[in-house]
Amino acid sequence: MVKIKMVYVAPSANIEAYRPKFFSELFAGLRQAYGPPSKSYSEPVLNAYGVKYDAHRAVGMGNQDVISIIEQAGEGGRTEAIAGMLAEYNRAAQAPKTANPLQ
Fold first, then answer.
1. Are 85 and 2 in contact (CB under 8 A)?
2. Which of 47, 71, 88, 91 fits a disulfide with 23 by CB distance 3.0 to 4.6 angstroms?
3. Which pLDDT score, from 0 to 100, does residue 19 have?
4. Where are the alpha helices (DSSP H) in 5-53?
5. Are 22 and 48 in contact (CB under 8 A)?
6. Any residues with CB less than 8 A from the CB of 1 and at least 6 apart, and which?
7. Residue 22 in contact with residue 7, Cβ under 8 Å?
8. Please, what sign has the CA dihedral across residues 90, 39, 4, 7?
9. Are the CB atoms for 7 and 68 separated by under 8 Å?
């Protein structure tokens, strides 16, 4: 396995028997299963209309693997849970970042 990415999206309409997962629920579950994260923080982000939100991030690192949770805050937001190999995480961290034209 190199990387698995799961995206949890809150629907804009009510769907019977569907209960979306939010960052706080996923974070609590991973914390219970794997212990406290190596790093947990919030950062300001802007949506496409320039509205500012605080997005939460958490990263848990093992000897060879990494689990991260990324909140895409705001209306139509989502939470991403990404599990992968430490080598892939380090490679992606060193890749050039795309500049946000809104910031």
1. yes
2. 71
3. 61
4. 23-34
5. no
6. 83, 84, 85
7. no
8. negative
9. no
Of 56, 80, 83, which Cα lies nearest the Cα of 67? Answer: 83
Q: Are 88 and 2 in contact (CB under 8 A)?
A: yes
Helices and strands: H and E segment counts in the chain: 2, 5
At residue 55, the pLDDT reads: 86
Residue 83 sits at the vertex; the CA angle it makes with 101 and 71, to the nearest 5 degrees, is: 40
Mean pLDDT by 10 residues, the chain (103 residues): 78 59 81 86 83 87 87 78 88 80 65
> Closest Cα to residue 92, out of 100, 102, 82, 101?
82
Residue type, 65: D
Q: Name the amino acid, one letter, at 29.
A: G
Q: Do the beta carbons of residue 62 and residue 23 sit within 8 Å?
A: no
Query: Please, are residues 71 and 46 in contact by the beta-carbon 8 Å criterion?
Result: no
